[in-house]
Design a protein that fits this description.
The structure holds 2 protein chains of 2 kinds. By secondary structure, chain A is mostly helical. Chain A has a domain of about 180 residues: MetI-like (MetI-like fold), CATH 1.10.3720.10. Chain A has 14 helices and 2 strands; from the N terminus they run ααββαααααααααααα. In chain A, strands 1-2 form a two-stranded antiparallel sheet. In chain A, helix 4 packs across helix 8. In chain B, helix 7 crosses helix 14 and helix 8 crosses helix 9. Chain B is globular and about 70 Å long. The chains are: A mainly alpha, B mainly alpha. At the A-B interface, helix 2, helix 5, helix 6, helix 7 and helix 9 of A face helix 1, helix 3, helix 4, helix 5 and helix 6 of B.
Chain lengths: ~300, ~280
């Protein structure tokens, strides 16, 4: 007695010549082929083209690591690399911490909490162009709401986007607002915490901070790590449009990141070989940071077990 | 009583903070064009200029741009649903070793920075002669757009009791029929979440349409808005009206779908709970 009686299902002879498992691999084929052609092969191609000079019109020419040697004297490249690393070091921990704190605060039933959770996610799905433009208006030196508010309080306005420090800080803040994806991940991670562990700790007299430090944090470590890795990876492109539209990469290239450098080298100057070398560096930086954090977390976890 | 009041106050502030950029966009989009910019904080300057939305047409043709953007999303979203759910089902049904490998692969793919695909894909698609067509923009849909969507489907399908799959197979269903008759109807939340999220991706996309679509007739809405900003950098009422038009469909879809992936839907929690599979 099942819903799927032979009458309902047309007689398809697929099963006769393909095992179910082979059929599953067929279903997986678009994903695997797409991944191979759009991500894995491009990686290999990038690593190889990074060793060449290539303008897309004539065939690539091997140039004896000239791209890598060029990095040593290319001040703009060094600036972009420094800015991107700075952004990862400053903004990623802030965004992960923000996502975790908001998830801890909003992970409960009750009036208003559902709306609050949805609201936190909203900036993350606003189309990037519109999002950057509204910040350009909000932070406008003359009539942006932030400066008008400051002036109403009798304080001087600040040209946020044209002072190196505040321009960078603004780019960080704009990105912090978009922590929705990490927020969902943290909510989900909180929901799988075993409730009895928390109860035991409360009975044992652990206070809130102790519970967070010694129970919640270690249990959430895998999710926290995943989020940190993901934020490192997305940090490269998510500052691209905000940098182009709000600060226009300025002042003095303080908001010029590796994504801008790759974009300009490739699509502005047609130096695809050099841009590939820089793209390879993005792979290397990502892998290095992910591996470093992974090891640090494992070490921390082991120390935690010894306590 | 006092603490409850305080809690509502804190919640209201939080909600307002996260809505603030959008509220500001909406408010400024209704400011009459040509009115001097404000000199003190004001949320709405009467009279409200609803005609701004129409007047965006004086600067860029809304309808053809919308059609171009919707055409891309209209092809890419269904394709994404198809390929991501196929992959998700296969991962859920394949033996343990294959599953662990495919999940680890998906998580690793989530960590590939999008920037790093710009240059090699551009070289690839240029050599294929696909520049100024929408094919390069649709290509990611073949791999389910994001490995995250594949994972979301995998989790939803893995939660369906295996007896249901077995019953269908005993009745002679092939993989496609299992997918269509058993898996999809029981994973409606995942279907809706992936549809909305991937729509937002294709609708909002700027860099790829900017790179590949060269003739003006192919421009998408975000590309045109960015050009408008470059041509009229201080005409904020029009820029904000265009932005609201761009944001509205995404926010409306999100409002309809948010409960499927934010409230009470624990698909992600299940994934993290089974995280072991992915991190082995």
């Amino acid at each position: 007695m099942s819903r799927f009686s032979p009458r309902v299902l047309p007689r398809v002879s697929l099963r006769a010549w393909l095992s179910y498992r082979a059929q599953l691999w067929l279903l997986l084929l678009p994903f695997l082929l797409g991944t191979l052609i759009l991500i894995l092969l491009p990686m290999v191609v990038t690593l190889l083209l990074g060793l060449t000079q290539y303008d897309l019109f004539s065939p690539p020419e091997w140039n004896n690591f000239a791209n890598y040697i060029n990095w040593l004297t290319d001040r703009l490249f060094q600036r972009a690399l420094y800015n991107s690393l700075w952004f990862i070091v400053i903004a990623v921990p802030l965004r992960v911490a923000g996502a975790l704190l908001l998830a801890l605060a909003l992970n409960r039933r009750g009036r208003g909490f559902g709306l609050a959770r949805a609201s936190v996610y909203v900036p993350a799905i606003v189309p990037e162009v519109a999002y950057a433009m509204v910040w350009l208006l909000i932070l406008n030196p003359g009539y942006g709401i932030v400066n008008l508010g400051l002036q109403a309080l009798g304080l001087p306005g600040v040209p946020w986007l044209t002072i190196p420090f505040t321009a960078r800080a603004s780019v960080v803040v704009m990105w912090l607002f978009q922590l929705g994806e990490g927020f969902i991940l943290m909510l989900a991670a909180l929901q799988i915490l075993p409730p009895d562990v928390l109860e035991c700790a409360t009975v044992d007299g652990a206070n809130r901070l102790q519970r967070f430090r010694h129970i919640i944090l270690p249990l959430m470590l895998p999710a926290l790590l995943l989020l940190t890795f993901r934020d490192v990876a997305t940090s490269f492109q998510s500052v691209f449009l905000t940098g182009v539209i709000t600060t226009q990469n300025g002042p003095y290239y303080t908001t010029y990141f590796l994504s801008h450098y790759v974009f300009d080298e490739a699509f502005g100057l047609f130096r695809y070989g050099y841009a590939s070398a820089t793209t390879s560096l993005i792979y290397i930086v990502t892998v290095a940071i992910v591996a470093g954090q992974w090891l640090a977390a494992r070490r921390w976890n082991r120390l935690e077990d010894l306590d | 009583m006092g603490s409850r009041l305080l809690r509502y106050l804190a919640l209201s502030v939080l909600i307002l903070v996260f809505w603030f950029p959008l509220l500001w966009m909406l408010s400024y989009s209704l400011r009459p064009i040509g009115l001097p910019p404000p000199t003190k904080p004001e949320f709405f300057a009467p009279p409200l200029a609803f005609e701004n939305y129409w007047r965006v047409n004086d600067y860029m043709a809304i309808t053809p741009l919308m059609v171009n953007s919707l055409r891309i999303a209209g092809i890419a979203v269904p394709l994404t649903l198809l390929t991501a759910s196929w992959a998700g089902l296969a991962i859920a049904q394949l033996p343990r070793a294959a599953r662990a490998f495919l999940l680890a692969l998906s998580v690793a793919l989530m960590l590939v920075p999008a920037v790093s695909t710009w240059v090699p894909r551009f070289i690839f698609f240029t050599n294929l002669g696909w520049v100024d067509t929408i094919l390069p923009l649709l290509a990611p849909a073949v791999m389910g757009t994001s490995p995250f969507y594949v994972i979301l489907f995998y989790v939803s399908f893995a939660r369906i009791p295996s007896e249901l799959y077995d019953a269908a197979r005993l009745d002679g269903a092939n993989a496609l029929q299992v997918w269509y008759l058993v898996a999809l109807p029981l994973a409606r939340a995942a279907v809706i979440a992936v549809a909305v999220l991937s729509f937002a991706v294709y609708w909002s996309s700027y860099v790829e349409p900017f790179l590949y679509l060269q003739s003006e007739a192919h421009y998408t809405f975000p590309v045109a808005v960015r050009l408008l900003e470059q041509a009229h950098p201080s005409n904020f009422p029009v820029l904000m009206a265009a932005s609201v038009i761009m944001v509205a469909p995404v926010i409306l879809l999100f409002a309809f779908a948010q409960r499927y992936f934010l409230q009470g839907s624990d698909a992600l929690a299940q994934f993290l709970g089974r995280g072991g599979d992915a991190f082995e």
